[in-house]
Design brief:
This protein has 1454 residues and is mainly beta. It contains 16 helices and 88 strands. The longest helix has 17 residues. The protein is globular and about 100 Å long.
């Protein structure tokens, strides 16, 4: 392997930072949504306290390098008229709390940055202009980069408003000679948005001054309100050296409330202490408050407070009207302001500074190290502790004087990494160890308890008892005496605190974001429903990844399956099938009860189109063929079928006609003639090629490129044919067309037009013949011509309302060319749009055409339509519509409009969708399949409810599900059945919301989707363990997964202390000064042998192997050993352990061997007998083990030993005294051994049987803290891959003949790369064959492997070998893309991917890895730019696309 590609396949999910702010809308835009509740709905005491939920800000989350912005969508309590809507609502419903029945997060932006976010804050707009301006996001990156982003409505995405970089030679003096800083830059903002500050390089504070509202970059336009709604921006910056202010060790800083100028409070330690000195020197921290004057650049000290405990680590600014700051330590909480201070001890480690006065203590003991906190109200903060408990801290105050602090326990929740309050009634718990939660809170006076209908999400916020759900706060009676009624009227904030006695907090989990990190280890096993006979791509669907993820009570086994394998209900053989449709039939007699909702109605008929006939099956109960008894057209193939008139009629379209049927009886028969009468002779052969149905219209595209529209009359239930005026312009052939039905609670497209109502005749509800009303919504027709333009018409009048030039080129944003003019149409990189005639000529050779279109919006209030287009080269263009309001005088470009359009311009202008725009959505890697140009494909099927999910299904040779969650499309391939010819949904008695697919082999499969979580990059199933999983391995013969799990157990303190004494030496503890009462949590380890019982069901623990006390299981592996006595191979389970007893006890470990036998009494009950066959105690921890040619290789402390197995004994045959410290991983290929040391990099050894010796071949002489190692095999070359704690990957090779290798002692670097995540495990998988490989028979490409890796951030990717020619081509493309793509937050991908040596001496290695995270931007460029760039690097667009496609096919694992 000389060259490789780095490719992410599953991006990070562990949320490390979160914040809230008005990013996509200003606080003035959002009005309170809660309807007035009438008193008879609810108990009267409840209505008095319902306060409307104010404007709800956005949520911003950062996971490693993934930045996402969400809108919180609130569902009010449903009134009876909305009851039918609630059925289809997303999750997050449950109990009604403060008039809200549910809330969900909806994605606005998803950006992958070229850098990991170190800290994240929102710069508020300040309340200067009534909340018209929006907030901005400030991100910091190592070492000292700051980017300020704002949301730009015109592109529906984030735009960089300023960048500040304090790196490089100009700023090297800021480092003061240091190379390494333990943490990246930390940003905090002033609560009024006047400035922000960033702490970088330990002691340099960078102050960013915000621009004032009046001096923004945009001049305020009087006529339009939204022009002034620009976001807050940064104007200038300067540096304050904290060293000059006599601060040495800054721990945290924050801006506080209630001062005229911004005031920053800094927590710093004036002299350091450490654990051994704490008894003498313990109160070493202090806080200093500086007033920041940004114009004079002065910062005088206002007040300070000394003698804070050494473990204080965090500051929390108390909101107005109280003001001041909370200092949070591990054992104490201190409150300080300019005038007052008080404190609270949390446990018996809290000591007062001078040891004299008594300290107020909380009623229970807790520890607050590593806690996160946010404010719920202006006097109540919520803390999330390291054990995942929520604690409420109340400030009891009188006026502005805080008298004391009160802490009380609340519910248990997820282990959080960051927490933020969203508005006045939600907070978000961001977690990298478990799923992140959106929680609604309500602090009412006498708030109702939640009913027990609230289903807690995965038990995350657990309630130990129902009483925990209501938090009664009872402060002492002294408070009641202290605050008298006169004082209450005097200080307006009094009643809040006086009524603490009745103040409760009620919590409800409303939504959760799935997280699969941190992936500590994973193993690659077979799925239960795998197909042993599968080959090729389909074989990959047999495997799954079982990962150890989470920590503590959030620990889980995560099962990841990239491709969906549906659960088959029945399967029939049906060769020669071309298409398949299911239709409903509303019978007037049976449906009089109206008992069945639309979603639950069963399908009535299944229509199957074969090569020269059509079959019809009844589907109500079982599938029975009724072809003979129905009036369907069955003599030839069917082109399409569907329902009209509110499911009361069925329309069947075939090549030369159509039929309308009521159930089994035909009510109308149409024959279709071509529209162009003058060409009648030639167009006799014009038949229907594609159909789109939107009740009550049917759009037909004929084979000669003309279109026809069938218009239905709902009163007579009959249709008539119209020739739309479009097709008379016969110079433009229609290549693809679709109808878009804009239904839902309120038509969406209407909002984008400037006039109030579009001139469509069907805005009103139409009374059907059965007396029911049907809300038809608006129908639009989307066409694509052979010159690549796209046009939208309203139906049935066919006025053009939207036109896009060159839709086929796939620009990042498209808008109405007619209204905005071609000049500003492309927000493009290269501005040579039309003048480059050579490009156009070159494009004509490519002749890329649109072969299929689909536009869809699902029924929900806020959904925006998606537009999907498939091009003839296999590219899928996916666009998401959005509204951007253009003011009338902004761009009237009638002059640009060509002459043919300028007829009746004034009336055409009125109804154009001038505010409609589309933004292109990047699709994660998919394999393309080409369709010959001119053939109209029918691959997209829209589904509304398959297992409760909605989206598109894409059939063809590589079938793919597009599922819609939170306004984003999740793509999941389905590879297990090979190519799929046809697909349709099916809902009947035996198949509940399932589907039917027909494979190219002619099998008809009726399936259901497995019950997994699909709202993730890969479908996932989580099995909770209630403990921390450490390592998992796969026992292939028995299909078992042995997992190391540790659970914290509270043990008596004296028992813990006695275990820390070395028994042999016989030291005794002096018991004088040790308080022996109390308990201490210790981790207890066990190996659980788990088995997946049934598909996607719960997993069963078949056996448990407990460890001894204070013994940690470090590694578990399935090994194959050669039994020298019995002369046969045995497969055993090997466990390596270590006794962890502190630094006074010599390290010991045990090696345990177990045999696992299956004993089954009958088929159902499975028993496993796990018997210990060998155990032995050794010196040193057994940290890694592997089987090497029938021998067992152990890493025992500072040496590795090879044993042979006699059946009852392990006898050492060879050893080697490497490595010096601790082995983290062992890998074996043939007789080669690769081992990674925790600090001393990697060693490469070989084993020789004849002399029984282990030889060190070579090692890496650098110091490297390894996390994982693996061999990378490419044909006949062997490379050694290692990942380290600085998030890098290095690839080494062994070359004894090269002079630099010191006669082969030294491993040489082949490539190095910065991944940006801690890789904890590599897995070697064989590359799949691509189309290029099949053409050359006998090529040596069979023995090529890629490395799949998992990271602590929850991401999965792979490193795959490349041919040199491909590598050179992609590398030159990568260099072009660095400059020609606009990168989010202005980050440079090249600097991100440089090896991070963390200040250690490092000789840079070769740059032999291409970054697919950057190359993927090539597909998102417009076609003209792609051709231009390919031309510049001397290749063709097709060649680049083929290389990228081959790479994604070859690594299409799982």
């Amino acid at each position: 392997m000389s060259f490789a590609a780095f490719k992410m396949m599953h991006w990070a999910t562990g949320i490390e930072h979160c914040a809230s702010g008005f990013i996509t809308h200003s606080s003035a835009d959002s009005t309170p949504k809660i309807p007035p509740i009438t008193a008879d709905d609810i108990d009267s005491d409840w209505t008095t306290s319902t306060k409307p939920i104010g404007p709800v800000p956005n949520l911003i989350t950062a996971a490693a390098n993934v930045l996402e912005v969400y809108i919180v969508r609130i569902q009010e309590e449903a009134s009876p008229s909305l009851a039918h809507k609630a059925a289809a609502e997303p999750k997050g419903g449950g109990a009604v709390l403060a008039g809200v029945s549910g809330a969900s997060l909806e994605l606005v932006c998803h950006d992958r940055l070229h850098g990991n976010v170190e800290s994240l804050e929102v710069l508020p707009n300040g309340a200067t202009d009534g909340g018209r301006r929006r907030d901005s996001i400030i991100l910091t990156f190592r070492d000292a980069k700051i980017s300020v982003l704002e949301f730009d409505e015109s592109i529906c995405g984030l735009r960089t408003s300023s960048m500040h970089c304090f790196e490089g030679s100009d700023w090297v003096h800021l480092r003061r000679g240091r190379e390494f800083f333990p943490r990246g830059p930390l940003v905090k903002v002033d609560p009024l948005g006047r400035c922000a500050a960033v702490l970088a390089y330990g002691l340099q504070m960078i102050v960013l001054k915000a621009a004032e509202a009046s001096t923004g970059l945009t001049a305020p336009a009087e006529d339009s309100t939204f022009r002034a709604a620009a976001a807050s921006r940064i104007e200038s910056s300067y540096i304050v050296g904290l060293r000059d202010l006599d601060m040495k060790h800054v721990k945290d800083f924050i801006f506080i409330h209630g001062y005229i100028e911004p005031v920053v409070v800094i927590l710093h330690e004036h002299e350091l202490t450490w654990a051994g000195r704490v008894a003498w020197k313990h109160h070493t921290c202090m806080v200093s408050a500086l007033s920041v004057n940004t114009t004079l650049k002065q910062h005088p000290l206002i007040w300070s407070a000394m003698n804070l405990p050494h473990d204080a680590y965090k500051l929390l600014a108390v909101p107005s009207p109280i003001g001041g700051v909370l200092v949070i330590g591990a054992n104490t909480i201190h409150y300080h302001s300019q005038s007052a201070s008080c404190h609270l001890g949390l446990n018996n480690f809290a000591v007062p500074a001078d040891g004299s006065q008594e300290m107020p203590r909380s009623g229970f003991t807790t520890e607050l190290d590593a806690a996160t906190a946010t404010w719920l109200t202006n006097d109540v903060a919520v803390f999330s502790s390291k054990s995942g408990e929520l604690l409420l801290l109340t400030l009891v105050y009188d006026g502005r004087v805080v008298q004391r602090l009160e802490l009380m326990k609340s519910r248990a929740s997820v282990l959080t990494s960051d927490i933020t309050t969203i508005g006045s009634s939600f907070f978000f718990l961001g977690s990298r160890l478990g799923d992140s939660l959106l929680v609604q809170y309500y602090s009412g006076i006498g708030a109702p308890t939640l009913n027990h209908g609230v289903k807690e999400e995965v038990g995350d916020i657990e309630s130990d008892a129902p009483s925990m759900k209501r938090l009664r706060r009872s402060p002492s009676d002294a408070l009641q005496d202290l605050i008298t009624s006169e004082e209450l009227t005097f200080y307006g904030t009094g009643p809040n605190n006086a009524q603490i006695a009745q103040k409760n907090f009620t919590f409800a989990v409303r939504d959760s974001l799935l997280n699969i990190g941190p992936l500590k280890d994973f193993s690659y096993g077979m799925r239960i429903n795998g197909d042993p006979s599968a080959t090729g791509v389909a074989k990959q669907s047999n495997y799954e990844l079982v990962c150890c993820s989470g920590h503590g009570k959030n620990g889980a086994l995560t099962v990841l399956q990239k491709s969906i394998r549906p659960d088959t209900i029945t399967q029939e053989s049906l060769p020669g099938c071309k298409g398949i449709w299911t239709v409903y039939h509303k019978n007037l007699r049976s449906d009089s009860s109206k008992g069945v909702a639309d979603e639950d109605e069963y399908h009535a008929y299944l229509i199957i189109s074969l090569e020269n006939r059509t079959m019809v099956l009844q589907t109500a109960n079982n599938l029975e063929e009724v072809t003979e008894n129905v009036d369907y057209y069955v003599q030839g193939t069917t082109v399409a079928a569907g329902n009209l008139f509110g499911r009361r009629r069925v329309i069947q379209v075939f090549a030369r006609g159509a039929r309308i049927l009521d159930g089994a009886f035909m009510t109308q028969d149409l024959s279709l003639k071509s529209s162009n009468t003058e060409m009648n002779v030639a167009s006799d052969g014009a038949t229907v090629s594609s159909v789109s149905i939107a009740d009550p219209y049917v759009l037909l595209r004929m084979t000669d490129g003309s279109i026809q529209l069938l218009v239905g009359d709902p009163y007579t239930c009959s249709v008539s044919v119209i020739n739309p005026p479009v097709s008379e312009n016969s110079d433009k052939l229609v290549l693809a067309c679709t109808l878009y039905h804009d239904k839902g609670p309120e038509p969406w497209i209407r909002k984008t037009s400037t006039d109030a109502w579009l001139s469509t005749g069907i805005g009103e509800a139409i009374d059907g013949a059965d007396g029911s009303t049907h809300d038809h919504g608006d129908v639009y027709c989307v066409l694509c011509y052979d010159n690549g333009d796209l046009e939208i018409f309203d139906v049935p009048n066919f006025n053009s309302i939207f036109l896009v030039d060159k839709f086929v080129s796939g620009r990042s944003h498209i808008l109405d060319t007619f209204f905005h003019g071609a000049a500003n149409n492309h927000i493009n990189l290269t501005n040579k749009y039309s003048e480059d005639i050579g490009q156009v000529r070159k494009e004509a050779n490519h002749s890329i055409k649109v072969v299929e279109l689909s536009m869809q919006r699902w029924d929900s209030e806020h959904n925006r339509p998606f537009l999907l287009g498939i091009l003839s080269d296999g590219t899928i263009l996916c666009y998401h519509a959005y509204i951007y309001e253009v003011s009338d005088n902004a761009s009237k470009t009638e002059g640009v409009v060509s002459s043919q359009n300028s007829v009746n311009l004034s009336n055409a202008n009125a109804s154009r969708l001038r505010n409609l725009r589309f933004v292109r959505v990047p699709l994660d890697t998919y394999a393309k399949e080409e369709t010959p140009s001119g053939v109209c494909s029918q691959r997209i099927t829209v589904f509304k409810n398959v297992g409760g999910l909605q989206g598109f299904f894409l059939s063809g040779s590589r079938p793919m599900w597009f599922m819609m969650f939170r306004e984003r499309l999740r793509m999941h391939p389905q590879g297990c059945d090979g190519p799929i010819v046809a697909f349709t949904v099916l809902h009947n008695v035996n198949c509940n919301h399932g589907f039917i697919c027909i494979t190219s082999e002619g099998a008809l499969k009726i399936c259901q989707l497995p019950a997994l979580s699909y709202d993730n990059y890969w479908p996932v199933q989580k099995i909770g363990l209630k403990g921390t999983p450490h390592q998992v391995t796969y026992f292939a013969e028995k299909n078992l997964y042995p997992v190391i799990v540790s659970v914290p157990v509270l043990k008596p303190l004296n028992q813990v202390l006695s275990s820390l004494v070395d028994q042999e030496v016989g030291n005794q503890f002096e018991h004088d000064n040790i308080n022996m009462e109390g308990t201490y949590p210790m981790e207890e380890f066990e190996v659980r042998i788990m088995e997946p019982e049934k598909i996607n069901g719960p997993w069963q623990t078949r056996a448990t192997i407990p460890m001894q006390s204070s013994e940690h299981a470090l590694t578990v592996r399935v090994v194959t050993l050669f039994n020298t006595t019995a002369q046969r191979n045995e497969t055993l389970l090997a466990i390596g352990t270590a006794y962890v007893q502190g630094e006074d006890v010599a390290a010991r470990g045990r090696i345990l061997l177990y045999s696992v036998e299956r004993i089954s009494d009958n088929i159902q009950v499975k028993y496993f007998q796990v018997t210990e066959v060998y155990s032995k105690e050794l010196k040193g921890a057994i940290s890694a083990l592997a089987s090497l040619q029938g021998h067992l290789l152990l890493a025992s402390g500072p040496k590795i030993i090879l044993h042979k197995w006699t059946g009852s004994e392990l006898n050492g045959v060879a050893f080697h005294d490497v490595p010096p410290l601790y082995v983290v991983s062992l890998n074996i290929v043939k007789n080669f051994i690769l081992l990674g040391d925790i600090h001393k990099s990697i060693y490469f050894l070989s084993w020789k049987e004849q002399g029984s010796q282990l030889n060190l071949l070579a090692k890496d002489f650098g110091s490297l803290d390894c996390l994982a190692t693996e061999f990378l095999i490419d044909g006949s070359t062997l490379s050694l891959t290692v990942s380290d704690d600085q998030k890098n990957v290095q690839i080494f090779y062994y070359a004894p003949k090269v002079s630099e290798s010191w006669k082969g002692q030294k491993l040489l670097s082949r490539a190095e790369f910065h991944v940006g995540a801690h890789i904890t495990k590599f897995l070697r998988l064989q590359l799949l064959p691509t189309s290029a490989d099949r053409t050359m028979p006998g090529s040596d490409k069979t023995n090529r492997f890629a490395l799949l890796f998992g990271t602590l951030e929850g991401s999965i990717g792979c490193i795959a070998p490349l041919e040199e020619l491909t590598f050179r081509r992609l590398q030159s493309l990568q260099k072009k893309l660095v400059d020609s793509v606009c990168h989010v937050a202005g980050l440079n991908p090249r600097s991100f991917r440089h090896f991070h040596s963390n200040g250690k001496a490092h000789r840079p290695g070769p740059d032999s890895i291409v970054d697919c995270e950057l190359l993927v931007h090539f597909e998102m460029l417009a076609l003209e730019d792609q051709l231009e760039i390919a031309n510049q690097i001397g290749t063709t667009r097709m060649q680049i696309m083929s290389n990228l496609n081959d790479l994604s096919v070859a690594t299409n694992f799982l």
